[in-house]
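ok here's the first one, seq then struct tokens
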Amino acid sequence: MTLEVKKGIILYVEDNPDNRSLIRRVLEAEDYAIVEAVNASQALEKLEGGNIDLVLMDINMPDMDGYTLTAKIKAISKFSKIPIVAVTANVMRGDREKSLGAGCDGYIQKPIDIDTLSQQIERFIIRSNNV
């Protein structure tokens, strides 16, 4: 699978098809290539198969939550430097800290502000390229 890369390749791990569709449309319009996974095993498979620049991680998924999957990805040395950004409706006190504690590099709350999403992602990609 070859993706035409302009700004970067983003793996979006999300079980909700409506959310995947919205994010794909927004980010493709901003010249990002999107790879989608609906669960943890698909996400790991997609990481193995591509040059992923950033992972957008849904936290509430049925098979394995995003905290567990993030920790699992960060424990694999060849993936440990890929920024993972939690995308979640969990906005209670402590949820951001729990995401960061699991290894996420950032946190975007749902509903997603589509006007600022691409700038947020660009900051994470630039920061990871400068590390």
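and now the second one, same deal
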Amino acid sequence: MAAIVDRMIRAAKLDVALYDEVEKDEGSMGQAMAVVVISSVAAGIGSAGILGPIGFVGGALAALVGWFIWALLAHFIGTTMLAEPATRASLAQVMRVTGFAAAPGVIRVFAFIPILGTLVNLVASLWMLAAFIIAVRQVLNYSSTGRSVAVCILGWLVQVIIFSLFAMIGLGGIALMSAR
């Protein structure tokens, strides 16, 4: 338990050596997925304070699915569209490093606090973006941070579009059912 907590703290501190370590440690996938689940549950708890049980489930699932989509897109965009000659990374490596990049999301547990909740979510999002950028730069062996920023922002934007489409479909479905 102490090992995962230490790694989460190092990930949240944006410790480049941690992301290199996790990239090479094939046995760390379980820890990386645990970090994602812990971060997602924290998001659910933060949402539950505002929306109750539906907020908990919705917040946790959105955070979990959001990370997964973002990690997949980072791998795809980073290894195909924006690859450098030295870019070599498996999906498992990208999932491990971005799993740890979700560590700053643990602070979302405090999003239930009135007025401060929005600020907590903003800080968590920006902090996770910074961690993702470092993780992606390391795992994809980029020579510059700019390329990693592009990969992460493109992946994040596509993720937001996907969630927005699902939200519109979901809200449209609710509107159609209530019109009956």
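notes on #2: Residues 172-180 have pLDDT under 50 and may be disordered. The first helix runs from residue 2 to 12.
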